[in-house]
Amino acid sequence: MNNKKLFAAVVGLGLVTLSACGSSDDGSGSGSGSGSGAKTVTLVSHDSWAVSKGVLADFEKKSGYKVRVLEDGDAGQAVNKAILTKDNPQGDVFFGVDNTLLSRALDNGLFQSYEAKGADTVKAGYRVDGDKVTPIDTGDICVNYDKAYFTEHKLQPPTSYDDLIKPAYKNLLVTENASTSSPGLGFLLGSAAKYGDDGWQGYWKKLKANGVKVVDGWEQAYNEEFSGSAGGKKAKADRPLVVSYASSPPAEVIYADPKPKTAPTGVADGTCFRQIEYAGLLSNAKNAEGGKAFLDFLLTKEFQQDMPLNMFVYPVVEGASVPAEFTEYGPQAKDPETMDPAKIAEHRDDWVKSWTSLVLR
Which residues of the chain have pLDDT under 70? Predict the structure, then answer.
């Protein structure tokens, strides 16, 4: 989801399989390429887009399209920019709008209709009405904890939203700004789902009184403020609780050198909010046919099974497998908070304004 490849790079080996603009761009933009005559399909995404080189090369070989990738920052920033440029879009496909921001994209006419091949293989719980977007991946936004800190201080790590406002956890949590960060917004929505329209503001007042720290984005929160991450250790961070993802602990294992026997971080399972990411064919795309082919590719098992170790998310199609590390260190939350997209659309902007007044002022 957002900035997780920055996390992987800081943790250790980095994502050596990232699709880079330079490696897949023939310089022509969408439409007919120059030199080899290959056609280019341009993907616009947030900064966490990643795919194995071999998997992308296989798509290019089979489809005849070269893939150009334009990364536009955090999900919220990328969506807003895509909306502003929708009449003359930067590309053909947009990847990375999630259920917290989906209504904004749809209400502004960001996408044109297309039902991707393989849409019938998407698990029922991840499908949406209409054919403007295609579900691609899912993950859980959750509070992560630094195991070493809690062992050293002989303190049980929190397991729920309620725990986070207890005196024992005062000044321990860092979260992201709900107005600028996708995980920050997800954590806000999770609290609204948990405590209801009338209760979430009171919860955040207590959380603020208990010393929650707010920073702009995930990279700063996880790699600079969180004591449990490899980046946090280098930065001498002092917050042992952070809003991140259920898939962060396996990343801490996979990218560590040497690899630890157990994950150094854990997940407070009762603090999770289910996130789903979508892709769509941009309105006024110059290479609509290439965009359709690319959307079809995103639902293939080859791509779906490649995602976990590149973007640290779960596949959404039936029968797609996940790495053993995910099962062992980062299983999906058993009972995450969820919210109907229509309710998010109705309340999101007002909630963010209220949250900003409550927490940042």
Answer: 1-38, 231-232, 235
